[in-house]
């Protein structure tokens, strides 16, 4: 049995970029890689089965990554954050599975290949576009060009206080939004303008503010999220909506941070074997 960890990735904003090849498909945008993530155990098995926090599930991005690596395995996923709440659990699970399977089955792929397999699996499953590479790098990551490692273009944004507060109200099925052409037209326009803004002033405060402008412009907010962001902002903090989930996240001083239900930290390292 081999165990691997992949951090969560809070997408602040994004614009989809679709090309014929899934390796250079993905999204432009920015996000925060956080300690709350996913741990995966992989063991050899005649047939592939996946459990999520102990329950048997269908988990397409994980199944796809094993197919691409040409192995069958039992995969047990434990997650610190709920699926579908804007932390890229699908990408994290695919990435941790790819890293653990490479070791468990002595496949001999290099990092670039294991990360690319997870990126392609998440894209083809329709569950993510831009989480996997940031989850392999760590920190606060800009995605200036989409795609797998060595294909996309990635940058980083500095931070001083690593604490990130978050409150999860509910989940959004990523595939439903990505397949909605009208919604995606608004997302892409708002995402491009948010990225332009961040590249002019690359700070975590600006990232979170732009994230909230993005959510409003893209029409993705819910009443609970609007109220939650309003509360944090009126206590002097910065808050936005984690894409694609009904989750408020943000930064600020002790008083601001105590207004969230959970607290995690910027994870400066990428996914790894445990
Ligand atoms: N209990 C479950 N709840 C939700 N999804 C589940 C569950 N069990 C398995 N899945 C699978 O997990 C994947 C969830 O992907 P989804 O992209 O919605 O989550 P995510 O990566 O956390 O998203 P996001 O970061 O956009 O919020 C899908 O492949 C879905 O079929
Ligand atoms: C599409 C997405 C918001 C789903 O988590 C993410 O993968 C991203 O930022 O591209």
Automatic annotation (TrEMBL):
The catalysed reaction is: (R)-pantoate + ATP = (R)-4-phosphopantoate + ADP + H(+)
Pathway(s) where this gene product acts: Cofactor biosynthesis; coenzyme A biosynthesis
Q: What is its EC number?
A: 2.7.1.169
Q: Which domain of life is it from?
A: Archaea
**Residue ranges constituting the GHMP kinase N-terminal domain according to the UniProt record:** 72-139
Which keywords label this protein?
Answer: ATP-binding, Coenzyme A biosynthesis, Kinase, Nucleotide-binding, Transferase
Q: Which residues form a coiled coil?
A: none
One Gene Ontology term of the biological-process aspect is: coenzyme A biosynthetic process
Q: Which GO terms describe its molecular function?
A: ATP binding; kinase activity
| Ubl conjugation is among the record's keywords | no
What InterPro entries does this protein's entry cite? Answer: GHMP_kinase_N_dom (IPR006204), PoK (IPR012043), Ribosomal_Su5_D2-typ_SF (IPR020568), Ribsml_uS5_D2-typ_fold_subgr (IPR014721)
**HAMAP family on file:** Pantoate_kinase (MF_02223)
User: What is the similarity comment for this entry?
Assistant: Belongs to the GHMP kinase family. PoK subfamily.
What function does the entry list? Answer: Phosphorylates (R)-pantoate to form (R)-4-phosphopantoate in the CoA biosynthesis pathway.
Entry protein name: Pantoate kinase
- Source organism of the structure: Halorutilus salinus
């Amino acid at each position: 049995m081999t165990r691997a960890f992949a951090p969560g990735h809070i997408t602040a904003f994004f614009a989809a970029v679709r090309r014929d090849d899934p390796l250079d498909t993905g999204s432009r945008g920015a996000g925060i890689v956080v300690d709350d993530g996913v741990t995966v155990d992989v063991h050899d098995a005649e047939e592939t089965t996946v459990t999520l926090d102990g329950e048997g599930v269908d988990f397409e991005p994980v199944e796809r990554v094993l197919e691409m690596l040409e192995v069958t395995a039992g995969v047990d996923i434990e997650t610190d954050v709920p699926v579908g709440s804007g932390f890229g659990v699908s990408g994290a699970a695919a990435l941790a599975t790819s890293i653990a399977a490479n070791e468990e089955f002595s496949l001999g792929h290099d990092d670039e290949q294991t990360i690319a397999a997870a990126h392609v699996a998440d894209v083809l499953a329709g569950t993510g576009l831009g989480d996997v590479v940031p989850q392999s790098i760590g920190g606060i990551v800009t995605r200036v060009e989409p795609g797998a490692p060595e294909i996309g273009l990635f940058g980083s944004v500095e931070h001083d206080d690593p604490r990130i507060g978050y409150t999860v109200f509910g989940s959004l099925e990523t595939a439903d939004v990505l397949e909605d052409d009208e919604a995606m037209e608004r997302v892409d326009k708002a995402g491009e303008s948010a990225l332009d803004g961040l590249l002019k002033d690359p700070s975590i405060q600006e990232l979170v503010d732009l994230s909230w402008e993005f959510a409003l412009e893209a029409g993705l907010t819910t009443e609970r999220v609007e109220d939650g962001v309003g509360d944090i902002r009126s206590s002097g903090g910065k808050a936005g909506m984690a894409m694609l989930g009904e989750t408020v996240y943000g930064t600020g001083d002790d008083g601001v941070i105590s207004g969230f239900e959970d607290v995690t930290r910027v994870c400066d390292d990428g996914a790894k074997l445990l």
